[in-house]
Amino acid sequence: MAVRRVVPNIRTEAVRENREFYGLLGFEEVMNHGWIMTLGSPSSPAAQVSFMANDQTAPVVPDLSIEVDDVDAAYEAVRRSGAEIVHPLRDEEWGVRRFFVRDPNGRVVNVLGHR
């Protein structure tokens, strides 16, 4: 299993303000589903940050998203470890397969793969 990118998720109601502020630093909007907006660097596409007020299908806003090349293998490894699964493995309508797990620091990590 390989990590493809890591994206911090910032819980906020100020989406427009964040788009403008981080735009000053060179970020551009690369995704916006209304409830989550992701900004990315045009020169380094894996450099991203997401902003969301809530998560459309999960009970909490994750602190961090980690995209992996095999989300099913990641899920099995995490499940076997006994870590707390916060949101079960599922296919989402916007084209990702994901689950949430709580890390040793209490942070919620969204582990995902694109279909």
In short:
With 115 residues, this protein is α+β, with helices and mostly antiparallel strands. The chain is 17% helix and 43% strand. It has an 8-stranded mixed beta sheet with strand order 2-3-4-1-5-8-7-6, with helices on one face.
Description:
This protein has 115 residues and is of the alpha+beta class. Helix content is 17%, strand content 43%. The protein contains two helices and eight strands, in the order βαββββαβββ. It has helices spanning 15-23, 71-81, and strands at residues 3-11, 28-32, 36-40, 48-52, 64-68, 85-91, 96-102, 108-114. A hairpin with a 4-residue loop joins strand 6 (85-91) and strand 7. The longest helix is centred in the middle third of the chain and has 11 residues, at 71-81. The protein is globular. 20% of the residues are buried. It holds the Pfam family Glyoxalase. Residues 1-114 form the VOC domain. Keywords: Dioxygenase, Oxidoreductase. It comes from Streptoalloteichus hindustanus.
Spatial strand sequence of the major β-sheet:
2-3-4-1-5-8-7-6
Q: Note the beta-strand portion.
A: 35-45%
Report how far apart the termini are: 15 Å
CATH topology annotation? 2,3-Dihydroxybiphenyl 1,2-Dioxygenase, domain 1
What is the fourth-level CATH superfamily?
2,3-Dihydroxybiphenyl 1,2-Dioxygenase, domain 1
Radius of gyration: 14 Å
Classify the helix fraction into a percent range: 10-25%
| β-strand number | 8
Under the CATH scheme, the architecture is Roll
- Specify the biggest β-sheet: 8 strands, mixed
Q: Any idea what the shape is?
A: globular
